[in-house]
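Reading group handout, session on sequence-to-structure problems. Before we discuss, look at one worked example. The prompt was deliberately terse, the way you'd type it at a terminal:

> structure Methyl-accepting chemotaxis protein

The input record follows.
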Amino acid sequence: MLRALAPSVSKNIGAALEVFYKKVRSTPQTAAFFRNEDHIQGAKKRQESHWGVVTTAQFDERYVEGVTAVGKAHARIGLEPRWYIGGYALLVEQLIHAVVRERWPSRFARKEGKVLGEEIGVLVKAALLDMDYSITVYLDILAAERKAAEDARAKAEQEQAVALAALSDVLNRLSGGDLEAKLSPEQPENFVGMAHDYNSSVETLRGTIGTVRSAAEEILRSTTAISEASNHLAQRTEQQAAGLEESTAAVHELTQNVALTADGAHRAANVVSVALGEARVSGEVVMRAVTAMGAIEKSSDEISKIIGVIDEIAFQTNLLALNAGVEAARAGEAGRGFAVVAQEVRELAQRCASAAREIKALISQSSGQVQAGVGLVNNAGEALDQIISRIGEINGIVTGIASAASDQSVGLREVNAAVASMDTITQQNAAMVEETSAQTLTLRDEVERLVNALSGFKTGNTASMNASFHERHMQDPTQNHRRAG
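And the output record:
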């Protein structure tokens, strides 16, 4: 239906706006919102465009944005709603007259249509006027409430200014370290709780800072003691490190000496072992010599027996030759040749007997010497047995010495490694102690600065606490020295 009115509205909106802006020009309250005629013509064109959008019945986002822009413009320039509603009433009246004239069924009754248009226009004006009054009352109430709110805000701002001034004063004193500054409880009603909370907070802060200061002073004393103890510990650790370094060198030298001793003992054991083997071989040779001497003695006995037999044979031969010579002599000339032979045989038997006696004497002498040699060889064998036994004992002792020296060398190497490790650890500990001492001194300086900073706060018992702290601090170095020593 609204779109059906679009041609009539488009046809008559220009004339209606001429009547509207004529009224605007003649009314000082509305004319003041326009700079010149160009400004009015620009507003008129925007109104025509706006009514073109309205008659399309498309109340979409574009329409809402346009209406919102108009409302913001009215609010910015301070146009009261009654002038906006009155102007719309005049514009709507002109449009109603135009629409009624165009749509009235008879030209002869056009006068009645005009009257009807005027009556409808009056009715619309009355409705808009009634709406204007209601909105005006609503806006008056809003204005009164706004003024009351502004008065309340002004009062609150005044009370806030008073409270903030008092708070600023105590905060300035607080920034200077005065924790005895308090807010007066005689504050505006809305700030009495704030004053109480502030005073309670400052009281708590004063107690906390006092506790922190006491703790900081105690930490300062402790760090002083720790610093001195760390210095003494660092000195002792350095001395211990130097002693361990000397011990490491001595143990290392001892380890080398024991290793050399073990090596010499092993070589001596090898030499003794070789000597033991050679002595055993010599013993075996002596035993074989004893056996051979025994065999020689036995052979000498056998030869003596044979020589005895030969001597007996020579004796018998001599007797036979003697008898043969006697018999040859009895035979006379016939036995002379036989007597010569018998004499020769007798002489040969005598020489044989003489040789046998000499051989027997030599064999007897050789047998005595062999027996003496056997005795000597037996004595040598017994001596070699004793030597072998002693060498065996020496070998066992030297082997034990070599084994013990080897064990000692291994043990000393382990001791040397342990002492070297202790030396390294002690040096590391010395470095750590020095670093700890330096950090402790740094901590002491920081805590001392903290104590000095906390001493700047006025808590009511600052003077007594400072005097007590300095008195204790002057005594602490001696006590710390006694504890560190």
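Points for discussion. First: The chain is about 90% helix and 0% strand. Second: The chain has two domains: 3-159, 225-484.
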